[in-house]
Design goal:
The protein is mostly beta strands and about 550 residues long. Strands 11, 12, 13, 14, 16, 17 and 18 form a 7-stranded antiparallel sheet that branches. A hairpin with a 2-residue loop joins strand 13 (about 265-275) and strand 14 (about 275-280). It has 4 domains: about 40-95 and about 125-170, Jelly Rolls (Sandwich), CATH 2.60.120; about 175-240 and about 275-330, Immunoglobulin-like; about 330-425, Jelly Rolls (Sandwich); about 445-550, Immunoglobulin-like, CATH 2.60.40.10.
Length: about 550
């Protein structure tokens, strides 16, 4: 047993001395204490040059150990602790034991326990560092004696985890990228939906450009002092993050709550949650970035992390915040009674176009004709909603109120492409701007009546005698979708070449069930696609375009 203590290395012997100086085991447990000493040592010793993840239970301290000074006159070391959630308390204690006591331990004096309670090691235990908070803290020290060091960690708020990096290679053992002497972010531009940031380059980027990149975090809640803390906060809201934002290293699967955006060679991940969103943008080695697609009049918090792509280790710049500019009051156009206007809406900006009308009569009628795309209308009277819906084709709203009631019409494109709509408000119900419409504006074709040079089409009419004009256009297979989608339903036949005109005719029927007309178009080519349009003209001369119909003639007859 004495030989067992003699052959123990110095740093393990010092662990035993520390344990002995605090509390010596009883005779009955002495053998198990020595047997478990190796397990104690290996489970709590900090690995040199590696990052260790430490899980902490609330109000239960956790201790880790390392030994310095063995065989070296001076032993420099560095310890970096990164809280990943709540503030923690941590401290460094050093235990220095005298050589005579170590000698007694080697000679087996630890085997005699008669006066164990009174036997104390002639040593000194001191606290050299302590900290409380959630910032990333680094302690740099120098050991001139053989000493055992103990790190103690405590979380008083809740269970959490931290990372601890310990190294004695203070020259080349840099796990974390370096920050510049001034690690602050500068806001150099603020718009309604954008914020432009700049920061000083990390020395690591200048030295190892191919292995380092900057990643930007944007959210509406607060700044994060470490990437570890940001990941923990996002996961706690029910989302999953790619590890350490090394987004350009390897492909990964996005969670249902995530959206990936690739723009201008920059990869963005937006994590959507009920509490908002956290946007992550990795920008390579650029030290200036404009964050787009923000909401007006909203405060955002910005954090930049310099990330080592090989180790996923990161260092945080000092975060900042900025408030986007308020949305300018939308310009409101005044509507005049009986006058029709056409409005083009930008789908990409997702903005409302506003029209205002002050009633000069108790009864008024709004008319909307969708020309292109998809449009949502919102009509309010004195601030209260009276109509809200997506329109298609032609739509009327007859409203009753008081003189001088103020109506506000807001129009918005529900597609990312541009949309357009015609709007008219009138108090003269007896002079309708648009003609009376049939139940359906669809054109029907008869497959059995198709030949190699003719097709037969039909459409519904009304109880009023009305003029109808038919136009045809020869198209290719790959043009069908584009022609149908981009058709301007507000444009009249005046925009068509005269060569496309087939005929014009008048008809009506008092019985709506018989208000149907057919027309056979002759002189077509075999096996060719044709686009047919029918225009209806009312008393005001404004045309209504039926839904276009594509028909293909037979190849063989």
């Amino acid at each position: 047993l004495k030989m067992f203590w003699f052959y123990l290395p110095l740093h393990l012997l010092m662990v035993a001395c520390l344990c002995h100086s605090i509390k010596v085991p009883t005779a009955s447990s002495q053998q198990s204490f020595k047997t478990d000493l190796f397990n104690f040592y290996h489970s709590l010793i900090l690995a040199d040059g590696k990052e260790t993840t430490v899980h902490l239970l609330k109000d239960i301290p956790k201790r880790y150990y390392f030994v310095l000074g063995e065989g070296r006159a001076l032993a420099p070391f560095t310890i970096t602790v990164t809280p990943c959630d709540v503030p923690i308390e941590w401290s460094i204690h050093v235990h220095k034991a005298s050589a005579s006591f170590l000698g007694k331990a080697a000679q087996g004096d630890l085997d005699t326990q008669e006066d164990a309670t009174s036997q104390k090691a002639p040593s000194m235990v001191s606290t050299i560092f302590n900290y409380k908070g959630n910032s990333v803290e680094t302690y740099m020290g120098m050991s001139s004696h053989s000493a055992l060091y103990m790190l103690e960690f405590l979380s008083t708020e809740r269970d959490t985890h931290i990372t601890v990096y310990f190294t004695t290679d203070t020259i080349s053992g840099h796990l974390y990228p370096e920050l510049p002497t001034d690690p602050r972010l500068d806001v150099v531009g603020i718009g309604h939906t954008t914020v432009t940031l700049t920061w000083k380059h990390s020395p690591s980027v200048l030295q190892h450009r191919e292995n380092i990149q900057y990643c930007l975090l944007v959210n509406e809640k607060h700044n994060y002092k470490s990437l570890c803390a940001a990941e923990t906060a996002i996961r706690s809201s029910g989302m999953k993050l790619p590890p350490a934002l090394a987004l350009s290293l390897s492909p990964f699967l996005l969670e249902p709550q995530q959206v990936m955006i690739l723009s201008n060679s920059e990869l963005s991940i937006i994590n959507k949650a009920s509490s908002g969103e956290v946007r992550q943008i990795c920008v390579g080695t650029k030290n200036t970035h404009t964050v787009p697609n923000l909401s007006p009049s909203t405060q955002y918090y910005f954090d930049v992390f310099v990330v080592n792509l090989l180790t996923n280790a990161s260092a945080a710049y000092t975060g900042t915040f900025a408030r986007t500019l308020e949305e300018p009051e939308p310009k409101v156009m005044e509507l005049k009674d009986g006058k029709m206007i056409q409005v083009v809406l930008d789908g990409k900006k997702d903005k409302f176009y506003s029209l205002r009308y002050q009633a000069m009569h108790k009864k008024i009628q709004f008319s909307f004709q969708l020309c292109h795309g998809q449009v949502q209308i919102h009509v309010t009277k004195n601030g209260k909603t009276v109509a809200l819906e997506n329109i298609s084709g032609l739509r009327y709203f007859s409203l009753k109120g008081k003189l001088l009631d103020t109506y506000l019409v807001q129009l918005r494109s529900t597609e990312e492409t541009n949309s357009s709509v015609k709007v008219q408000v009138s108090s003269h119900f007896h002079k309708p701007l648009f003609p009376l419409l049939p139940e359906s504006l669809k054109i029907k074709s008869f497959s059995k009546l198709r030949t190699c040079n003719s097709v037969t089409i039909a459409w519904l009419g009304t109880q009023e005698e009305t003029k109808y004009c038919v136009y045809k256009k020869r198209i290719e297979e790959d043009q069908v979708w584009r022609e149908l989608r981009n058709a301007d339903r507000c444009s009249g036949p005046e925009s068509r070449p005269k060569s496309e005109k087939v005929l014009c005719k008048y008809f009506y029927d008092i019985n709506l069930q018989r208000a149907v007309t057919t027309e056979t178009i002759q002189g077509l080519d075999a096996g060719i696609l044709y686009l047919f349009d029918v225009y209806l003209f009312g008393p005001s001369g404004i045309p209504i375009r039926y839904h276009s119909k594509v028909v293909k003639t037979r190849k063989k007859c």
